Amino acid sequence: MDYGMKNRLSRLIKPDGRCMFMPIDHGYFLGPTRCLERPGETVKPLLDYCDALFLTRGVLRACIDPAIDKPIILRVSGGPSIVGQDLADELVTTTIEEVIRLNAAAVGISIFVGTDYETQTIMNLAEMINECEDYGIPVMAVTAVGKETEKREARFLSLSCRIAAEMGAKVVKTYWCAKDFDKVVEGCPVPVVMAGGPKCETEREVFDFVYDGLQKGAIGVNLGRNIWQNPNPVAVAKALHAIIHENAKPQEAEDIFNEAKNK
């Protein structure tokens, strides 16, 4: 692995081998998502707790202070919206020149295994990897399933993650599942980070699944709505940071959350 690739990955994945990525890319298919109407204002108090931001070039340019010392994972796929025919019908939206111009530490791109657009999106990933490898830029594959939540089980996730790794992704983002998540991670030869998915009912639910996933081999999270849609986002971010980087258990994280919330 070349110096540039190693250097960028070291900025994303901390010396403890863990990471806390924060996605604010939801607007690329959802529009002005609740609490992301002003993305720059949303993330400002949370930057101390996340290790990288995952977002589109438009929001990066329009809303994020260029002076922040926070690695950027650039979302480079898109196309359909939530009201369109099929969320899986994505194409590559951003050139490698744009990735370099924006000084991104990595790029993120979705694949939709098991859909009519499986081959198209896997080829999107493969072609982006081909270009990024020339410049030492890591690619994070996002194993998206759109509205098909029934596919968020170990067998399907294992398939998606392994395909992404086989194509050359350096990191794979996937969903946590209650049963056999360890097998998902074991079957993927590159690091796995957990997606948050729809907002959980309680903070403890978030702390529990993140802790469980880390115990089963994930290196961290790419978590958005369960942080910045919470009425106490800074408290949630602080608690999750403790789980990921300080090995706090769910009860300890809940105590951290309550203490921060009550200040």
Keywords:
alpha/beta; globular; 43% helix; 263 residues; 10 strands; 8-stranded parallel β-barrel; TIM Barrel; two-stranded antiparallel sheet; 12 helices
Topology diagram in text:
Layout: H1 3-12, E1 19-23, H2 27-30, H3 39-43, E2 52-55, H4 57-63, E3 72-75, E4 77-78, E5 91-92, H5 96-101, E6 106-111, H6 118-133, E7 139-143, H7 154-167, E8 171-175, H8 181-186, E9 192-195, H9 203-215, E10 220-222, H10 225-228, H11 233-246, H12 250-262
Helix pairs in contact: 9-11, 9-12, 11-12
Question: Which range does the strand content fall in?
Answer: 15-25%
User: Helical region count?
Assistant: 12
Give the overall pLDDT as a whole number.
95
CATH superfamily: Aldolase class I
Structural class: alpha/beta
Number of strands: 10
Structure description:
Strands 1-2-3-6-7-8-9-10 form an eight-stranded parallel β-barrel, surrounded by six helices. A two-stranded antiparallel sheet has the order 4-5. The longest helix is centred in the middle third of the chain and has 16 residues, at 118-133. It has twelve helices and ten strands. Helix 9 runs parallel beside helix 11, helix 9 runs antiparallel to helix 12 (250-262) and helix 11 packs antiparallel against helix 12. Helix content is 43%, strand content 15%. The chain has helices spanning 3-12, 27-30, 39-43, 57-63, 96-101, 118-133, 154-167, 181-186, 203-215, 225-228, 233-246, 250-262; strands at 19-23, 52-55, 72-75, 77-78, 91-92, 106-111, 139-143, 171-175, 192-195, 220-222. The protein has one domain (3-230): TIM Barrel. It is an alpha/beta fold and 263 residues long.
